[in-house]
Write a structure and sequence with these properties.
The chain is α/β, with parallel strands linked by helices. The protein has 9 helices and 9 strands. Strands 2-1-6-5-7 form a 5-stranded parallel beta sheet, with helices on both faces. Strands 3-4 form a two-stranded antiparallel sheet. A two-stranded antiparallel sheet has the order 8-9. Helix 4 crosses helix 6. It is elongated. The chain starts with a strand and ends in a 17-residue tail after the last helix. It binds S-adenosylmethionine. The site of S-adenosylmethionine (SAM) has 19 residues, from strand 5 and helix 6.
Length: 266
């Protein structure tokens, strides 16, 4: 898959392409990266890429001519790619969107700076607007890196068998189970006994239940958004019974505390 990044700060991407899973994917030709300096497409001696906003106000706006020329050149070099404008106003990246993007031939990322870009660039040159969350960054570069990393992991062959994306959080609608490594005892906290047992069936069962517990505690809404297998319902009912047992075992029989001013007493 081709990843082309259009930016006025291409130096930010050198270390990014050069480390970890991304580096491995580049070496294996699973992804083909390119970083393009938008300034190279700006005319004039100073290669200016921004200007003051019409209507006044603070901040600068990215000029349409260099951006358009850079996008057109990138599209010519990567004809099967879709062009994504990085924007806090775009579609917020999630697992479903990352999976869809991973099926494309390529992606061209247009990274904004300042107040963003001249609106007219969006009309003919942008296929989709992508956000990484409801907050505003100073530029689209970090956002593009987030998208590239999330998408690259989902391209077949990028992750080895051992750290396959299918086991990651959200893949089956749950968060992933907890992980432990040596030592067995760290500051008095022991690794769960079952993980040392070598019994694959029991380890698998513990991991499934642990994934359910973590999802219930951290992101309970995920459990209402997906169908539950019979064994998962059994796990939830088991905890429900355990919570009731704890409440009933209390000396006050689990009676709610009557606080002054509380209306719960009816
Ligand atoms: N004035 C714009 C607004 O309020 O919508 C924000 C501009 S922001 C300071 C500069 C650039 O950072 C944007 O053009 C975009 O490329 C990038 N950016 C900022 N937040 C982002 C986010 N949450 N997701 C993706 N890109 C973002």
């Amino acid at each position: 898959m081709q990843f082309v990044v259009l930016t006025i700060f291409p130096e930010m991407f050198g270390p990014f392409w050069d480390h970890g899973i991304i580096r491995r994917a580049v070496d294996a030709r699973k992804i083909v990266p390119a970083t393009v300096n938008i300034r190279d497409y700006a005319s004039g001696r100073h290669h200016v890429t921004d200007d003051r906003p019409y209507g006044g106000g603070c901040g600068m706006v990215m000029k349409p001519e260099p951006l358009t020329a850079a996008i057109e050149a990138a599209r010519a070099a990567a004809p099967g790619a879709k062009t994504a404008l990085m924007s806090p106003q775009g579609h917020v990246l999630d697992r479903t969107m990352a999976r869809e993007l991973a099926r494309l031939d390529g992606l061209i990322f247009v990274c904004g700076r300042y107040e963003g870009m001249d609106e007219r660039v969006c009309h003919d040159h942008i296929d989709l607007e992508l956000s990484i969350g409801d907050y505003v960054l100073s530029g689209g570069e970090l956002a593009a890196m987030v998208v590239i990393d999330a998408v690259a992991r989902l391209i077949p062959g990028v992750l080895g068998g051992e750290d396959s994306a299918e086991k990651d959080s959200f893949e089956d609608g749950l968060l992933e189970h907890a992980h432990f490594t040596r030592p067995e005892n760290f500051n008095g906290m022991r690794v769960p006994e079952v993980l040392l047992s070598g019994h694959h069936g029991n380890i698998e069962a513990w991991r499934r239940e642990n994934a359910m517990i973590r999802t219930f505690l951290k992101r309970p809404e995920l459990l209402t958004e997906r169908p539950l297998a019979a064994e998962e319902v059994a796990v939830l009912k088991k905890w429900g019974r355990e919570i009731e047992r704890i409440i009933e075992a209390r000396s006050d029989g689990g009676q709610p505390l009557d606080r002054p001013g509380s209306s719960s007493g009816g």
